[in-house]
Amino acid sequence: MKNKKQSRVKIVLPVLFTFGASLMFFQADAQADSSQSADVNTQVVATTDANTQNNNSQDLNVSTSQNSAQAQAYTQSAVAANQNANNSNGNNDGAVSLDNSAVQAAANKPVVETNPGYSTSQYNVTAEPVNAANSGNGAASLNTAGLTAAQKAFLDSIHDGAISTWKQYGVLPSLTAAQAIIESGWGQSSLASQYHNLFGIKGSYNGHSVTLPTREVYGGTSVMINDAFRAYENNSQSVQDHGYFLVANSRYHNLLWKTNYRDVTYLIRADGYATDPSYTTTLNSVIERYGLTAWDREAFDTNTGHVDDLSVRGDQLHVAGWHVASGTNGNMHHFIILLDGNTNQELYRQDISKTYRQDIQNLYSNTGAAGWSGFDISIPYTSAFAGRNITVVSRYTNDASGEQNGGRDMFFTPVSLDANMAALDKMSLDPTTGNININGWHAADNSLGKKYHYIIIFDGSKQTELGRYLVTNVARPDVASSFSGLYNAANSGFSLKLKFDPALAGDQIQVISRYTDDLAGNGNTVDYWFAPKTFNTNAAYLENFKINGDQLHISGWHAADQSVGKKYHYIIVFDKTTGKEISRYRVANKDREDITRAYSNVYNAGRSGFDIDVPLTAGMIGDQIQVISRYTDDPAGNGNTVDYWFAPKTFNTNAAYLENFKINGDQLHISGWHAADQSVGKKYHYVIVFDKTTGKEISRYRVANKDREDIAKAQANVYNAGQSGFDINVSLTAGIVGDQIQVISRYTDDPAGNGNAVDYWFAPQTFNQNLANLDQVTVENNQLDLAGWHATDQGINKPYHFIILYDWTTGKEVQRQLVENVTRPDVANAFAVYNAEKSGFKVSLPVDSSLSGHRLQVISRYSDSASGEGNHIDYWFEPINVTIK
Predict the structure, then answer these.
(1) Percent of the chain with pLDDT over 70
(2) Cβ(818)–Cβ(841) under 8 Å?
(3) Contact at 8 Å (CB) between 820 and 799?
(4) Which of 588, 608, 589 has its CA nearest to residue 598?
(5) Is the Cβ–Cβ distance between 305 and 410 less than 8 Å?
(6) What is the pLDDT of residues 608-626, one digit of tens each?
(7) 156, 168, 431, 481: most buried by Cβ count inside 10 Å?
(8) Distances (CA, A) of 24 to 29, 118, 214, 333
């Protein structure tokens, strides 16, 4: 049941009533229903406040995969049923029948209960409370006596989430656990067991929901509806979302961060989470029966911290962080102890001066001297630390020498002081000098005491050292800025120029940077092996491969390490469809400063450009045409080569647009453009008028193409785009009117318009407009004066224009009059309709006084008969009321 103030509530947590073995899940109406109150022996969890239950801003209504599969199965069944209906039902009115087998299968499936539900047998009623009467302090420890393995597993599944919810939101863990037990029946409800929804929250979580049947009460009537419930991946997510719900709704803020469970269970009911007066008693009973306050004390006991920095700064080791612990105070000594993370050997200890941390005070205001929990020290970096895993221990103690005495220790995760970092900024072939330019940096915590720096060149393909070179380190302030905690970062740079032997081309060449205490480059060492590099980069890009007039324009760039010694550059045009070379062209390379910048490590990048025009032939059209860029030592383009095959392209664009296709007087005006790659060699351009309704050609016209600079710009890569325009007027005939008329633009090699052709079929259009307007209607002295216009495509070959007066009241024609059309340029400007230019009429018709009060209708008719009958087209204007004075 609900309070009246909750009358607009849409979403509720489960409401459970134990009526013997029967359970009910419902959403109550606005008015409290006294008939639904339980007797004193019935355990009741009342409806939760749901005014804000959907405030979590996740997306809603994402179907589960199970529902998707069911929907697909239903769709297939419906299709089958529809086919059966079409085959068997002689009186088919479009309705389809459900598949009987699918209906039966659904009927035999149980309803998925959404109520959490529990019976008295699910409660561990035999378990005795532990220290239940303890003035609200709860049980001394968790009481799991008498619980089943499944119930114990359920507690395990929500434990971490309940503790985390306290730390994150201030929701007491014992309250969270008790509500989860009650509202999910120890996680055994269908909603909880299948979808981990422990609290019956409706809506969607991270876009996941499941639609299930649920019972609601509208106007005192209980009905079953389908609604969306949040679906979680695990119980912890459900617990966390429950905590967020309490935080997101300000009405519950008074119970956050309170540590007495009796206060919290009283407040959650008083705040409107539940209307059942026994809700607080029920929660207290569960908390005390199972000793759930043990989780509260676990959450309250704080011993935590963080090492913000453990790094080498120049010749100092910097250690900074914080440590907060329950049961400590500001009078204790605070020691920082450093251990070898592998052997636990103590390397250093120091009683430090405390550092104030306002951020930690804000987070742990209820814990000891949290604000004075910071530490920040610098000590000399020596070989005792270099290369080791260091464990930082923060110790609060009453002992001045730093031994354990009444305080707390915090052992932080070991941090390695064996960082070994480097970067090879450049390892490239210089085409001018023939050298390999090598430079980079190498900094290592364990390089302390190793004053010799070697660069070793190693052939990874042959597993052979090629040489080693003692280098002098140079300053790298950029490395020092980026890796301030890394020993010798500030002076970690190196550079080397190595003569390149072409015999090494293609092998994996690897650089090793070594710090050592041995002048010969051996001894105690710390090495960094850079990724190997093979000087076989073959990079290229085809910037233009398009039709330009009657030429094929090809341009781009090609840079390759293995082009050393290959001074001839060829561009080959290859037909991939037929597998045959079309042509080849020796090119002079062009300067490309942009490629030098982008590919500074690739040989000949600065002189890698090419740009040629190739005659366009019909054989290039329609097939897959491929460009190959080749460097070779052979003047004929063969010999030792390095090739780059660009992606093939098929020149078969067929583009067009019909700009005008309309009636203009007694002409059909057709204009637009048509550009097609496959029009190469097809010098005849036809425009064909085709009747799609009858499937017959009406007429064809050979046209002279017009210049179209706009199309040349918009369709620059299409052959003949600049000369693609057409504009013709076709004599309008009655056969064109009423049918679907289609324009075809055709390029062909046949003067008659047949032969090898490339066509573009424009969308068909039907010319059947019938437009009119009655501009003036006056009745005076038994005379009806009319003026207006009537234009219609179907007026072709209908020379007789009649105005007919029809008595709408009696259903009889009164009279008709043959009229002579008058010019109406305004109509011609507004409508592209046959005879729009001469569509006007003015007529005076005598009317008898007997027609006064009748509704008269004016009909404008074009006919091929002088009598006004025969083939005709009418326009019926709206009826008018006539009053004759």
Answers:
(1) 83
(2) no
(3) no
(4) 608
(5) yes
(6) 999 999 998 888 988 999 9
(7) 431
(8) 15, 10, 9, 60
Q: Which long-range contacts (CB under 8 A, 24 or more apart) does 477-486 make?
A: 479/441, 479/443, 483/421, 483/443, 484/311, 484/313, 485/309, 485/310, 485/311, 485/312, 485/313, 485/318, 485/419, 486/311, 486/312, 486/419, 486/421, 486/443, 486/444, 486/445
The helix (run of H) or strand (run of E) holding residue 453 is strand 452-459
Q: Please say whether the beta carbons of 196 and 235 come within 8 A.
A: yes
The per-residue DSSP string of 702-770 comes to EE--B--HHHHHHTTTSTTGGG-EEEEEEE--GGGBSSEEEEEEEEESSTTS-SSEEEEEPPPEEB--E
Nearest CA to 836 out of 864, 796, 802, 868 is that of 796
Tell me the C-alpha distance between 536 and 531, whole Å. Answer: 15
For CA atoms 324, 327, 332, 335, give the dihedral sign.
Answer: negative
Find the mean pLDDT for residues 475-480: 96
pTM greater than the 0.70 cutoff = no
Nearest to 1 by CA among 263, 186, 222: 222
CA distance 728 to 177: 85
Cβ contact 533:509 at 8 Å: yes
CA distance 9 to 2: 9
What three-state secondary structure class fits 357? coil
Q: Which residue has the tokens 């910048």?
A: 597
Half-sphere exposure of 753 (CA within 13 A, CB side): 15
Tell me how far CA of residue 257 lies from CA of 260, 280, 698, in angstroms. 9, 18, 88
Residues 623, 643 contacting (CB under 8 angstroms)? no
Q: For residue 187, how many other CB atoms are within 10 A of its CB? A: 22
For the record, the structure tokens of 573 come out as: 């045009």
Q: Which helix (H) or strand (E) holds 560?
A: strand 551-560
What DSSP line would sit under 786-810, residue for residue?
Answer: EEEEEEEGGGTT--EEEEEEEETTT
Assess whether pLDDT exceeds 80 at residue 32: no
First to last CA, the chain: 76
